[in-house]
Amino acid sequence: MADRTEFLQAAPASQAPVENFRQPWFAFQQPVPMAGRVILGLSAWVLFLGLWQFFALADVAPRRLFPPPTDVISALYTLFAEQSFHLDVWSSLRRILISFSLAVLVALPLGLLMGAFPRVEAFFNPLVSPFRYLPAPAFIPLLLMWMGADEGQKIGLLFLGVIWFLTTLIMDTVKSVRMELIETALTLGASRRQVLSSVLLRAAAPGIVDTCRQMLAVSWTYLVIAEIVATTDGIGAMMMRARRFVNVDDIMAGIVIIGLLGLILDMLFRGLHWWWFPHLRKTAH
Predict the structure, then answer these.
(1) Is the CB of residue 242 less than 8 Å from the CB of residue 252?
(2) Closest Cα to residue 212, out of 134, 176, 266, 259?
(3) How far apart are CA 62 and CA 37, in angstroms?
(4) 280-283: long-range contacts (C-beta < 8 A, 24 or more apart)?
(5) If you placed Cys at 85, which of 45, 79, 166, 179 could pair as Cys (CB 3.0 to 4.6 Å)?
(6) Element (H, E) at 263
(7) pLDDT tens digits for range 242-285
(8) How many Cβ atoms from other residues are within 10 Å of residue 204's Cβ?
């Protein structure tokens, strides 16, 4: 009894047994080991798919309108094996990659200059900022009149869906670079071009890569909208054909493929970030 009393008196209040018990699960800003991440992620998917299967088989809605995951997997197999769905997937992926590459080619230098020079920001920002509040689908009638119903209209819509936000976010990332780095470079005799390329761009590069990763996800959200107008190929076109015949399992299969492609590209960006910036790697405990 005396030993227990001495222990309670010596231990600070922050080390109470209840809090120590909760800390491994609910500690603030503590890294989760890779094995724990995998287990938690798989558990979330098992729970989601299990609930989906349960409600689909519980006759909450007609099976034709709310198919279970097993029907969607079967539809995926049929699409790839019998309907050349891989060609639609490639068409959609090509449009995303082309449009997003064009957006980066424009937004990167513009955002860099706007973030580096307040006068450039004062000139361009009143033009860029209002476009962020305009929904990209509102430009579809204009794009159809200007570019027709060919690839240019679809790539143009995907381009407009991300360019304004991407430029603004890159500008904000560049503006967050510490002024001490710029002043030091200028003191050592660096030119404006050298400060832009060797200081600002390098210091902001990790944030720019993260920004591109996030905006690429936004680009995928406009894919179906871009492919529903006078399109014969692509994931969105397949989903619109399936809608005519009420093939909800095919529509869900298209949604699954979009999610998987987005996840793969997100993992590629994360891999590039890990590879290009080794000094920012976090060691999991």
Answers:
(1) no
(2) 266
(3) 36
(4) 280/206, 282/31, 283/31
(5) 79
(6) helix 248-276
(7) 988 889 999 999 999 999 999 999 999 999 888 988 888 764 33
(8) 23
Phi, psi of 61 (to 5 degrees): -145, 160
The answer to whether 226 and 220 are in contact (CB under 8 A) is: no
104 pLDDT more than 90: yes
Residue with tokens 């470079």: 185
Q: Is residue 217 over pLDDT 80?
A: yes
**Whether the predicted model's global pTM rises above the 0.85 cut:** no
| Domains of the chain from N-terminus onward | 69-278 (1.10.3720.10)
Environment class of 151 (CB within 10 Å of its CB; exposed 0-12, middle 13-18, buried 19+): middle
Orientation angle between helical segments 140-147 and 151-175, nearest 10 degrees = 120
Residues 159, 160, 164: CA angle, nearest 5 degrees: 110
CA distances from 130 to 54, 70, 135, 165, 188 (A): 46, 45, 11, 11, 39
Identify residue 106 by its one-letter amino acid code.
V
A 10 A CB-CB count for 150 gives 11
